[in-house]
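Table S2 (continued). Query chain:
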Amino acid sequence: MATRDQLREMLSIRPFVPFVIKMASGGIFTVRHPELASCNVNGRSLWVHDEAGTHLVEMLLVEVMEPAMSSANPEGNGP
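Corresponding output:
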């Protein structure tokens, strides 16, 4: 279970580092900007905004929040 304080810590890192939220169900949300995630005052709910829309998540169902792995472009732009 993740906590409100863990989310705030991930959002306050400077420079910001994109991170993933992994759910107990196996779902994954990527937070690419600090303004794209927030939690309510009591820390029970989390809102994540991404390309698919806005997601309301129960913090009890969050398994882990960790920095997103930077993936190399498989097609590549160079030689």
